[in-house]
């Protein structure tokens, strides 16, 4: 059962191959197995590649099956159409389109498995990139809110500075009227004289202004601090909104770019391995010696070619003979008077009908 399946995979004529030796059948079983396992590898690679894109095992499985069937059919067709002609250059030229396609396919399907093989190293590279992106994003968002935050803080600092200056002024006025009463400064007279009263009134006025300024400043500072909290909350929210985008930065393209950051040689050898796998059905067919099956197939094709040439030659002779016979027949008919009179009568009737029709048409247009 397995032998018949692999012979089917090889694209060989089962009826013709069944009449060959056991060794010849084993050769084509090996070629068919190579075609089959190449399709299996194509399924694994393509399914994993699509899984990294959509993260859906069902889509990945369906696409992997379709891709594997495509590769299987293509390999089977190429292997079955390569003929052993005792000329390696001719066979290589015949297989060259498939070899070029194999190189492209090997590069495409090797990348997903390389990503899986070097997953830990790629995760390390992606982590560094995510951290760098997070820092850059935070700086960018901070720069966006920086003007509003700095302006708001500057206004708060300005109000606090004005309040502190007023408090200092009140403290100085307080010190002035106290020392005036003690007689240590000013008029140097102890007691509450006119100068003391003036200084006391100036202090009381400044104190009332300070109390009013404190009430007004407290309200404004409260509003500014509330706005500062809102700006900081908006900044944190903006950073939080972009965090999932950065965390999800691990798709197929990101991983391929991260893979390119790793040493080139390991990836190159894996790609060569897949190239060998992709071209193995063709190489197996080209390297296999011309055997009994090839001779029988060549004999059948030659017999069919001779048969077709004979049929074509007979058709050409029949055509030439019929043409010569009909030429002779029509040449003899040409001199028959009865046929001439009949043709003349028919021509006269046709001319009369054409003339009558023309007259009627002219009358209708007048």
Give me some keywords for this one:
mainly alpha, 366 residues
Task: Give a written overview of the molecule.
The chain has three domains: 144 residues, no CATH class; 118 residues; 59 residues. It is built from eleven helices and no strands. It is elongated, with a radius of gyration of 50 Å. The mean pLDDT is 76. Pfam families: DUF4407. It comes from Flavobacterium luminosum. InterPro entries: DUF4407.
Average predicted local confidence, pLDDT: 76
The assigned structural class equals mainly alpha
Query: What's the helix count?
Result: 11
Proportion of helical residues: over 70%
Largest sheet descriptor: none
Give the tally of structural domains.
3
Summed up:
Helices cover 89% and strands 0% of the residues.
Question: What's the structural blueprint in terms of helices and strands?
Answer:
Blueprint: H1 2-10, H2 14-18, H3 22-54, H4 57-81, H5 88-117, H6 119-182, H7 194-247, H8 252-260, H9 264-287, H10 292-334, H11 337-365
Helix pairs in contact: 1-3, 3-4, 3-5, 3-9, 5-8, 5-9, 6-7, 6-8
Coiled coil: 149-176
Organism: Flavobacterium luminosum
Keywords: Coiled coil, Membrane, Transmembrane, Transmembrane helix
């Amino acid at each position: 059962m397995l032998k018949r399946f692999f012979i089917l995979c090889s694209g060989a004529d089962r009826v013709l191959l069944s009449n060959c030796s056991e060794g010849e059948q084993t050769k084509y079983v090996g070629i068919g197995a190579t075609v089959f396992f190449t399709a299996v590898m194509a399924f694994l690679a393509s399914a994993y590649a699509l899984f990294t894109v959509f993260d859906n095992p069902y889509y990945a499985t369906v696409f992997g099956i379709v891709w594997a069937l495509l590769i299987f059919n293509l390999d089977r067709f190429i292997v079955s159409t390569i003929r052993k002609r005792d000329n390696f250059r001719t066979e290589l030229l015949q297989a060259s389109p498939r070899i070029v396609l194999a190189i492209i396919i090997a590069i495409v399907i090797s990348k997903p498995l390389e990503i899986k093989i070097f997953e830990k190293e790629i995760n390390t590279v992606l982590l560094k990139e995510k951290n760098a992106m997070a820092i850059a994003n935070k700086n960018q968002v901070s720069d966006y809110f920086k003007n509003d935050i700095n302006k708001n803080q500057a206004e708060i600092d300005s109000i606090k500075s004005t309040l502190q200056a007023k408090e200092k002024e009140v403290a100085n006025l307080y010190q002035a009227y106290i020392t005036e009463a003690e007689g240590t400064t000013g008029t140097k007279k102890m007691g509450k004289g006119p100068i003391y009263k003036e200084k006391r009134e100036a202090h009381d006025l400044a104190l009332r202004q300070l109390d009013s300024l404190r009430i007004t400043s407290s309200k404004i500072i409260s509003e500014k601090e509330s706005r500062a909290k809102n700006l900081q909350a908006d900044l944190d929210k903006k950073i939080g909104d972009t965090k999932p985008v950065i965390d999800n930065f691990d798709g197929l393209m990101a991983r391929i770019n991260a893979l390119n950051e790793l040493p080139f040689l390991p990836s190159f050898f894996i790609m060569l391995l897949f190239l060998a796998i992709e071209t193995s059905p063709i190489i197996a067919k080209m390297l296999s010696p011309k055997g009994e099956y090839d001779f029988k197939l060549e004999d059948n094709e030659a017999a069919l070619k001779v048969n077709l040439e004979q049929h074509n030659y007979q058709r050409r002779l029949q055509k030439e003979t019929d043409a010569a016979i009909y030429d002779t027949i029509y040449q003899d008919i040409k001199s028959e008077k009865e046929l001439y009179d009949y043709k003349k009568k028919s021509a006269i009737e046709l001319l009369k009908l054409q003339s009558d029709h023309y007259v009627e048409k002219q009358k209708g247009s007048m």
